[in-house]
Amino acid sequence: MQSAKIFKIVVNVIRSTLIFAMLASIFYSSWQNLFISLLTLILTFLPAWIEKKYKINIPLDFGLIIVLFVYASLFLGEINKFYYYFWWWDIFLHTVSAIAFASIGFVILFMLFKTNKIQSKPIWIAIFSFCFSLSIGVIWEIFEFFMDSFFGLNMQKSGLMDTMWDLISNCVGAITASLIGFIYMKGNQKSYLSKLVDFLIKSNSVLKY
Question: Do 70 and 98 have their domain in common?
Answer without folding.
Answer: no
